[in-house]
Structures are given as structure tokens and as C-alpha cells.
């Protein structure tokens, strides 16, 4: 068993997709965005890439933070890796998901609904897929938070917030939550302590102003923020995330490095974070861009 976690924040244009490899070589994916700005490849599929280039044959856990197109775009390849467990906001019905979608997107949302119906069993609390037991994941702690009390008119506010922690390093990956859900999440038992003083924050709602909730970002107090977004956003809050981030060394493929506070997939490409124990048992957090 290795002694570190690897996370890959894919460059998937406007969408989001993150891959996590645990210390005991289990495989987690959060969201199913597609495309690739830096490779000029609109058809880039992270799921196919994991199978063909990473040798992943099955995913252990998939989180679809919420059913919007930019978070499920790769869903037609979902069964290629036959995920064991799926988390999604079950408070949203298939009828709600299928309402008012574009005809060109219908096959993807129908696939989402079919999968939603299929993954309906309970997780064995004593089984190897229970996220509440870090031993199942090589010592990686995984906590998921969400709320189902917001208006169903805005799916963003049903998004999962996933918190990973290993070797004292913490990463927070929210979906597209906005003020209405953050207000409720901040009052949930354990939420504030779970996200507090994280090392890496994926900016909610692709770094837009609508996802910037000052109390949440202040509580997270990240060393570095990552924004998964397209090349242009007229409501970007990237500057605010930079002001709230403490800074960390980021390495580039040419061997150079610099202190950064906010990275974006549209300008930095795919971003990799590795963290855990070195051979001398000291802790490390390594962040690199391609």
C-alpha cells in the first residue's frame, strides 16, 4: 500500500471532474465533466482516459454532485468502469431531472435517470464501501454533506460537499452550492469542523460569484483554491478566492515553480495534487500543473 493520495482535477472546459486514488489503490470520481481546453479536444472523456491510460478497471465510488449537464456529460461512459457505489441527490426525482432539458441532451439525462433507478440499494455499514470507515480507503477520511431543504427550482443547492483528509492534509470539493444551501450547511453538525482550515478548496460553482459564500470560504481558509471553469466567465470570483487563500508552491511541467493562491483549469490545464507521508514519515503536499 502506498502512503499518499493522488487527486487529478481534470481540465474539462466549463464542467467538473476529479479523480481520487486512495492509499490502498481504490478509485473515486466526483462528477462527470468532459472536454479538454489544453488539448483542444472537446470529446475528452475522463472515464475512458482512466480505463485506457491509468489501467482502472472499476470505480469504487462515484459522486455526482447534482444533475446538471456540465456535471454528467460523461455519463454515457459510466458503465465502462462499472462503479460499485453511486452518491447523487436522491431528493431530486427523475421527472424533475427530465423537465425542460434540451433535446440534444436527452440521452444523457435519460441515462442518469436509469442509473438513478439502478443504484438504489443500501450500503452495508460494515462493508468495504462504507465511507465512514477510513480503513476501507487506506486511511483516507471521506465525509459527504448536503441539504435537501432548498427550493427544487435550483438543483445547484442540492450539491454534495465532499471532504477528504489524509496525513493531516485536507481537500474540500463542493459542487455548485450557492448561498441558500451554504446557509443550511454551515448549521449542520460537523460541517464547519470538517471543512475548517483545509489545504485545497475547489471553488464552488466554477468560481462564480453566485457560489462565493464568504463565511464558508473564510472557514475553509485554504492554502490554494482551484477553479474548474471555461475560458471566459463574466461573474468570476477568482480574485476573491486569491485574497482568501494562503498560498502554496505549485510546480510546472518545465520544472519551474512559484507560490500560487488560485489555479484555474482553463489557464493551468489539468491540476494534480498528491499528499501523504514521505519515506522519513514527514508530511507532504505536492501540487502541479501540466
Please describe the topology of this protein:
Elements: E1 4-9, E2 18-21, E3 27-30, H1 46-53, E4 61-63, H2 69-72, E5 85-87, H3 94-98, H4 106-118, E6 141-145, E7 161-166, E8 169-174, H5 179-185, H6 191-195, E9 200-202, H7 214-220, E10 224-227, H8 238-244, E11 248-251, E12 257-260, E13 262-264, H9 265-268, E14 271-277, E15 283-289
Parallel strand pairs: 3-4, 4-5, 8-9, 9-10, 10-13, 11-15
Antiparallel strand pairs: 1-2, 1-14, 2-3, 6-7, 7-8, 11-12, 14-15
Short description:
The chain is of the alpha/beta class and 290 residues long.
Beta-strand content: 15-25%
Structural class: alpha/beta
Order of helices and strands: EEEHEHEHHEEEHHEHEHEEEHEE
Major sheet details: 9 strands, mixed
Mean pLDDT: 94
End-to-end separation = 26 Å
* DSSP strand count: 15
In spatial order, strands of the major sheet run: 5-4-3-2-1-14-15-11-12
Number of helices: 9
Using the CA coordinates, give the radius of gyration. 18 Å
Uncertain ranges: none
Amino acid at each position: 500500500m502506498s502512503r499518499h493520495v493522488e487527486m487529478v482535477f481534470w481540465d474539462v472546459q466549463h464542467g467538473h471532474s476529479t479523480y481520487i486514488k486512495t492509499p490502498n489503490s481504490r478509485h473515486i470520481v466526483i462528477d462527470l465533466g468532459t472536454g479538454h481546453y489544453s488539448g483542444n479536444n472537446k470529446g475528452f472523456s475522463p472515464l475512458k482516459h482512466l480505463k485506457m491510460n491509468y489501467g482502472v478497471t472499476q470505480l469504487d465510488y462515484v459522486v455526482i454532485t447534482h444533475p446538471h449537464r456540465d456535471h454528467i456529460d460523461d455519463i454515457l461512459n459510466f458503465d465502462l468502469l462499472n462503479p460499485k457505489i453511486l452518491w447523487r441527490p436522491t431528493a431530486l426525482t427523475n421527472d424533475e431531472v427530465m423537465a425542460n432539458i434540451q433535446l440534444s441532451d436527452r440521452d444523457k439525462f435519460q441515462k442518469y435517470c436509469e442509473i438513478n433507478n439502478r443504484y438504489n440499494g443500501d450500503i452495508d455499514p460494515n462493508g468495504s464501501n462504507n465511507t465512514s470507515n477510513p480503513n476501507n480507503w487506506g486511511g483516507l477520511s471521506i465525509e459527504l454533506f448536503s441539504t435537501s431543504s432548498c427550493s427544487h427550482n435550483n438543483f445547484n443547492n442540492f450539491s454534495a460537499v465532499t471532504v477528504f483528509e489524509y496525513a493531516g492534509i485536507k481537500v474540500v470539493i463542493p459542487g455548485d452550492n450557492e448561498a441558500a444551501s451554504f446557509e443550511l450547511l454551515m448549521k449542520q453538525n460537523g460541517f464547519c469542523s470538517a471543512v475548517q482550515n483545509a489545504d485545497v478548496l475547489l471553488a464552488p460553482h466554477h468560481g462564480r460569484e453566485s457560489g462565493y459564500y464568504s463565511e464558508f470560504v473564510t472557514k475553509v481558509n485554504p492554502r490554494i483554491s482551484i477553479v474548474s471553469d471555461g475560458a471566459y466567465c463574466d461573474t468570476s470570483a477568482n480574485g476573491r478566492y486569491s485574497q482568501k487563500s494562503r498560498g502554496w508552491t505549485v510546480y510546472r511541467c518545465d520544472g519551474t515553480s512559484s507560490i500560487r493562491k488560485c489555479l484555474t483549469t482553463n489557464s493551468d490545464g489539468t491540476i494534480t495534487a498528491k499528499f501523504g507521508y514521505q519515506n522519513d514519515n514527514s508530511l507532504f503536499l505536492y501540487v502541479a500543473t501540466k
